[in-house]
Design brief:
alpha/beta; TIM Barrel; 12 helices; methyltransferase activity
Amino acid sequence: MTVLDGGLATHLEALGADLRDELWSAKLLIENPSVIRQAHLDYFAAGADVATTASYQASVPAFVRRGLSAVQAERLILLSVRLATEARDATGRGAVAASVGPYGAALANGAEYTGDYDLDEDGLFAWHRDRWHILAGSGADLLACETIPSLAEARALRRLLDETPQTRVWVSFSCRDGGHISDGTPLRQAAALFAGHPGVVAAGVNCVAPSHVPSLIKEVTDVPVVVYPNSGETWNAAEHRWEGLADPAEYGAAAAEWHAAGASFVGGCCRTTPEHIRRIRERLPD
């Protein structure tokens, strides 16, 4: 059983970071990398076995748009891995998963939850390729392909995995319900793309509602299952606040049920905190 970390951006905001930017947490690679290291340290202290890097929304094109050179952009992407590695080494535990965010994250329009893209599979392959090779050669223990909303993007990532056959990965999808990824493809079909590949350590879901997780676990076969949903909260636009499940103790209890249902990797995504991870660890000891 492996306990993942929780929402990196959520904890960075709790530490005082302002992430109102299209680069989201990746902007801190430029402005305040030490706070990223602290966030990783806090998740390890809470019991996480894995630190997921601040490269989710980092890409060479995004940094170039910010006025940096391609070489500087590559250095910042590598910095995301180094910060997590430093936290790992300081605590003496765990692994580093280099986050490979979806194309939709770079669009900064919510497309990672719809799969409504302006690129086809070949375009997605080309867009991901530079960052993929940077992270595959970064020294991270594995790549975390996260919040993937479409079958076309999953196919593009599968092709990239063939280019770096020694790379270990997990692949997690965003889902519209208890059986389909965001573009409507059955999760079972999308996850099957990665079954049998020696580099794939797990497939599953992230940033989905916790209520969907039990049924989604059943859709992933022939590969270990990874789940790290959001806190279950929803945004009330009228009142400008989050509502719904956020209690860490309830989340920890739910995580134990997900593990019993077959999940081998369990953690949290948006709006989850070190306290959520601490409660998971209490329920799922080493």
